[in-house]
Structure formats: structure tokens, C-alpha cells
Amino acid sequence: MNNQLKEKKYHKFITWVSIPIIMIICAIGTTVLWYLANFTGEAKIFVRIISTVMFLLLPWGLTFWSIKLGWTVVKIDENGIKRELFGFLFKRQITWEELHEIRFIFVLSGGGWIFFSKKSLENMSLGKARNQKGQIQIVHTERLIEVIRLFTDKEIVNLTIETTKE
User: Fold this and answer.
1) Which H or E run contains 68?
2) What pLDDT, on the 0 to 100 scale, is given for residue 68?
3) Which residues in the chain land under pLDDT 70?
4) Cα 92 to Cα 28: distance, rounded to the nearest angstrom
5) 44 SS3 class
6) CA angle (90, 20, 33) in 5-degree steps
7) ∠ CA(89), CA(91), CA(96), 5° rounding?
8) What are the C-alpha distances in Å from 154 to residues 31, 67, 101, 150, 159?
9) Distance from C-alpha of 39 to C-alpha of 123, rounded to nearest angstrom
10) Which of 121, 113, 119 is nearest to 74 (CA)?
11) Which of 112, 110, 153, 155 is nearest to 130 (CA)?
């Protein structure tokens, strides 16, 4: 195993950074469309309401949801797994003793997610697993697998040689 991995006190991962960046760009673009729809002509009240929902509320709501999902920082150390956003939001911690299972859930795009859970996620889809309390999720990478194996010898359910190829 890589000596650099062993020397670190804890290992930090960002859950999934690409989607929040894309969503922020889309939300800015739809805000411009909202402005054009509402303030460059004689828009009726119905058009203003619909455009506010379509071009402001929905895109920005999805952007904030994607930030919660994608920019959380996951730290793995000898005590367990910690997740937080900006150091103080959406905090969750699972110690190695509380951990019931580590599960890989495959996604159609060829990758997958690793879930650290306090209860079994057996036979759950990605969406159902995400909605469970007491779990921390992160996009699968080879480095993540190495770090997990550095701190625990628990089996990673559903992880095979074929799923570890990137």
C-alpha cells in the first residue's frame, strides 16, 4: 500500500463536484432568461408567475440540492467517516463500530457510489439508498477504496474487480 496514504492523519474527499458547477451555470443562465421574460416587455402576471417558477425557483432549488449532494467533504480516519458542508452544515459521523456495511451501488454511467451505512441497504436502488438516514455516500474512486482498506477490513458489498476499473 502507498506509504503516503499511511502517513496522513485523515483523508479528505469531495463527494461529487461536477454536478454543482453545471447546476450553478444553468441557474445563472435561467436567471437571465427570467429577467428577459419579465422586464423587457409587457409580461402578464401569469407569465411572470410561471417564469419565476421555471427560471428562478426550480433551477436555484436544484442548484442548492446539488451543492448539498456534491460539495460535501467526507473525511476518513481511524475513528470513522465524517461528512460536512462548509465545515458546519449537514454534519454526519459514523464510527467504525457503528458502521453496519460499506456498499457499492452501480450507476449506468459506468461508475458508482460507495455508501457507509448504519443499517443494511440491501436491494435498494441508488435513490432509496440516498434517502436513508444514517448513511454517508461518496463517488467511487480507486483512492477511496485504498483509504477504506487502510482503516477497516470490512467487506465492500457488491464491489468486484470489474466495477473497480475506471
Assistant:
1) helix 58-70
2) 81
3) 1-8, 109-110, 161-166
4) 30
5) coil
6) 125
7) 165
8) 47, 30, 8, 11, 12
9) 50
10) 113
11) 112
Q: What are the two backbone dihedrals, phi and then psi, of residue 128, each rounded to the nearest 5 degrees?
A: -65, -40
Cβ atoms of 142 and 80 closer than 8 Å: no
- SS3 of 14, please? strand
Q: What's the pTM value of the predicted model, to 2 decimals?
A: 0.74
What is the pLDDT at residue 15?
A: 79
pLDDT value for 166? 46
Q: Which pLDDT score is estimated for 110? A: 64
Return d(Cα 59, Cα 26) in angstroms, integer. Answer: 7
Whole-Å CA distances, 61 to 16, 29, 49, 56:
18, 14, 16, 8
Closest to 22 measured CA to CA, from 12, 30, 32, 14: 30
Could you give the 3-state DSSP secondary structure of residue 42? Answer: coil
Using an 8 Å Cβ cutoff, are 159 and 14 in contact? no
Alpha-carbon span 121 to 129, nearest angstrom: 6
Contact assessment for residue 28 and residue 90, using Cβ atoms and an 8 Å cutoff: no
Cα 24 from Cα 21, distance rounded (Å): 5
